## 1
Amino acid sequence: MNELIQTLAVYAIPVIFAITLHESAHAYVARYFGDDTAFARGRLSLNPMKHIDPVGTILLPALLYWGSKGTFAFGYAKPVPVDFGALRNPKNNMIWVALAGPVSNFVMAFGWMCFLYVLAVMHVEQAFFIRMASAGVQINIVMFALNLFPMLPLDGGRILTGLLPIKQAIQFSKFEPYGFFIVLALLYMEIIDRYWLTPISEMTLNFFQLFFSFK
């Protein structure tokens, strides 16, 4: 029980920041390109409660984690409402709105890595802060990589839709009602983990380590 409480304490702040800034980034970029839908609904906010979905952010990950005995978890926040038709250049701007979320996680992962570097330089050996910073790097790299997977409704699917020619984009968008279940199945079968998450996560982590090796 104590171990569970400690784990929750370590992961709570990184998870809250990762979700909140990811969703706020979508809202900010959407407003920048002309769509005020998310702003009008209060989603351009750093208040975590605006973005947490009781089922997707709390219940689903907990059930999956418990059901898989700690080997598998997946969740989601409240999707930021975007009226793509209100964007100044819908097809092009859609790419940047979708990309904003993963980019925010990449930046946060780098920020947590900087925090780890500072702790090491200052010879701070407090286990809680080291574990929290490590969790921040891990969580944000996973969110960065997973959200770039090219399947709707993930951000990678939005990016791919924006890049495809109109005819192919329309055909691809027909997968969206089933996309969540496709992604969930691929995650459960570890296909995404083996062929997408792990390679991208390792490349990102190697990039950070290479950057700090020059310090």
Note: The radius of gyration is 18 Å.
## 2
Amino acid sequence: MFAHAKSIPHLSTGDILRKEMADKTQLGEKIAPIINAGKLIPDERIIDVIKHRLQSKDCANGFVLDGFPRTTAQAIALDIMLSQLRMELDAVLLLNASKKEIVRRLSGRRVCIQCGKIYTVDYKKSVCEKCGGRLGIRDDDKPEVIERRLEVYEKQTAPLVDYYREKDLILEINGEQSPEKVLNDVLAVLP
């Protein structure tokens, strides 16, 4: 939503990797079992994916990274990439939400099998309003996988808060609000 409001690309590593899986590329075949088990893609592989994407012309005036970096090694690699591209990181958004709310939202998320449109837990229909396709649940949104994802987050991603706090880049937002309120708060704190 923020990227759209600012007319810059939203670079979701999850979307990029799921597309590779859906297209059954060589990368997609290698990463599918890792993602479906709720684990993180090895640093060197995801770093290469992001480095390639940041070199695209549409990123020249800014971008929003979503799902990267997830480890300190990835954060350091991002610093190097941005330096090489003569870019700077403006801010790191920390959307705070309780474990209970995260599990509720992710396990309630549905995705159109045909077009990929995502629906929230509040959407009560079983078909996509965009294309009429059937809605399903992604393997990585099953409760047991979400629990593993949260364990991985605590071990590997949570340390990034301190890494970016030391660089004075953390901006905290209450992530348990409505999407509209979260977007308003993000727009209020970012340039």
Note: The mean pLDDT is 90.
